Amino acid sequence: MDEGLFDVSEPSAPQPHPGSAERVAANAPLAVRMRPQSLDEVVGQDHLLGAGSPLRRLVEGAAPASVLLYGPPGTGKTTLATLVSQAIGRRFVALSALTAGVKEVRAVIDEAKRRLTRSGESTVLFIDEVHRFSRTQQDALLGAVEDRIVLLVAATTENPFFSIVSPLLSRSLVLQLHPLTDEDVRVLIRRTVADPRGLDGKLGLAKDAEDHLVRLAGGDARRALTALEAAADSAAATGLPEIDLPTVEATVDKAAVRYDRQGDQHYDVTSAFIKSIRGSDVDAALHYLARMIEAGEDPRFIARRLVVHASEDIGMADPTALQVCVAAHHAVQFIGMPEGRLALAQATIHLATAPKSNAVIMAIDSALSDVRSGGAGTVPAHLRDGHYAGAARLGNAKGYRYPHNVPEGVLEQQYPPDNLVGRDYYEPTARGAERALAERVPKLRKAIRGE
Questions:
Q1: Whole-angstrom distance between the N-terminal and C-terminal Cα of the chain?
Q2: HSE-up of 81 (CA within 13 Å, CB side)?
Q3: Domain check: are 47 and 190 in the same one?
Q4: Are 254 and 219 in contact (CB under 8 A)?
Q5: What is the rounded CA–CA span in Å between residue 203 and residue 209?
Q6: In percent, how much of the chain has pLDDT > 90?
Q7: Are 145 and 69 within one domain?
Q8: Which of 145, 146, 280, 338 is the most buried (most CB within 10 A)?
Q9: Over 50: is that where the pLDDT of 13 sits?
């Protein structure tokens, strides 16, 4: 077996793990040098590290269980996995789902089984980006996790209930890590400026520059320290005694956007976008639109959602809404991005500020419900097709009355099947353009039904 794939420590004489000071080179990235070496150094995640919590018990070596650590980048997943392996003194093997396949997973399991049988030595298997494993690769872990041949500690930025197979979920604790708060990030930045592993107090940090770094981090510790390192290098190169705001702005100009096009962020932000439009909050709707655009969401997907929403939540209250959204969809396909953002924004503003009505979706879903429950009765004879040879002998179209032959253009006549006569589906609201329909539709029904 290729031991070069793995980072191995002996339980009898634990070796430093990734993140330990002895193993981290002086020229390693700042985020690596500042990786916590104990639970006391972990910033944030108080909900997981309280007394008696599953993660604290695991890190303290009690009740070992396989764990799925789920959370955004830069929230401490790798750090906590390393601390788990250090605390319980087991052999530590690290794999990345970006590079490892079934062969590598099985090699680790086979070696772990041999060591467990030969000397009783247990193995902690850390898999980063585990959501990138295929179903086959995940299934390869099941037996070893079930029999505790390995203690699995896996990290994922995607909701495991979307990306991890159910059998593996049921065998593991799922622990969700939250984005760091602004105060957490501020504590981390200040510690790094002073810590010998960090900037060692050689540079100051202006308050407005610190505020800007906190804002840019977006709850991501790694991003905060990467930005701080870039700004520190720039300040040192120009001989500045402290990192000021212009230096930070010159080195980092974009805030982090937590969004995953295949994960729960995709669904959550899309849901918030639609619900903000439905709630007529144009500003919130534009915010979520901006998040989707900035994160690289497919603009065609956004446009399709707008088209659906135009009929679902606005409908006849503003019949132009659908036209605007279809035009926006065509514009996005025609001109692409970034200019397509203008058409998407226009459609979003139109929908958010338009009068709302769900009468369209309620009407079609009510009609579908009747059809699906057996309400599709026989088409009345006078409405059947009478254009083919023999139709007249069947009585088709006999007695049909042509509405244009009367001045009003509406006349008494049965249109639905017998079992649905008098059934109302469309119930217009009194909002927007639908107000006129709320007055007109009952009159039409009376004239048609002879009431």
A1: 87
A2: 29
A3: no
A4: no
A5: 13
A6: 24
A7: yes
A8: 145
A9: no
Decide if pLDDT at 441 tops 50: yes
Mapped onto helix, strand or coil, the DSSP state of residue 124 is: strand
The C-alpha atoms of residue 307 and residue 323 are separated, in whole angstroms, by: 9
User: What is the Cα–Cα distance from 342 to 324, expressed in whole angstroms?
Assistant: 12
More confident residue, 394 or 450: 450
Helix/strand/coil for 374: coil
Q: Could you give the CA distance from residue 422 to residue 409 in angstroms, rounded to a whole number?
A: 20
The amino acid at 136: T
In whole angstroms, give the CA distance from residue 301 to residue 299.
5
Highest mean pLDDT among 45-59, 257-271, 382-396: 45-59
* Structure-token match 């420590």, residue found: 9
Residue 28 shares a structural domain with residue 161: yes
**Residue 399 token pair:** 């007695």
d(CA 294, CA 1): 44
At 354, the amino acid letter reads: A
Residues 302, 405 within the same domain: no
Q: pLDDT tens digits, residue range 301-340?
A: 899 999 999 999 999 999 999 999 999 999 998 888 888 9
Please check whether residue 447 is in contact with residue 437, taking contact to mean a CB–CB distance below 8 angstroms: no
Cα 66 from Cα 171, distance rounded (Å) = 7
Domain containing 397 — which CATH number? 1.10.3710.10
Number of CB atoms found within 10 A of residue 251's CB: 18
Token readout for 372 is 């699906």
Structural domain span for residue 268:
264-353
Domain boundary among the residues 321, 353, 385 is at: 353
Residue 366 within any structural domain of the chain: no
Question: Is the model's pLDDT at 51 over the cut of 80?
Answer: no
SS3 203: coil
Which residue reads 């639908």 in tokens?
434
Domain check: are 232 and 336 in the same one? no
**Which tokens belong to 176?**
């969700």
Instruction: Annotate 290-303 with DSSP letters as a single string.
Output: HHHHHTT--HHHHH
Q: CA of 273: how far to CAs of 266, 291, 325, 415, in Å? A: 11, 10, 15, 40
Residues 48 and 74 in one domain: yes
Which residues face 155 on adjacent strands? 69
% of the chain residues with pLDDT over 70? 88
For residue 18, what pLDDT is reported? 43
| The pLDDT of residue 6 | 35
Q: Are residues 323 and 424 in the same domain?
A: no
Q: pTM for the whole thing?
A: 0.56
H helices of 295-433, where?
A: 299-309, 320-335, 340-353, 359-372
What are the angstrom distances between the C-alpha of 29 and each of 39, 127, 249?
A: 21, 21, 20
Q: Are 303 and 341 in contact (CB under 8 A)?
A: no
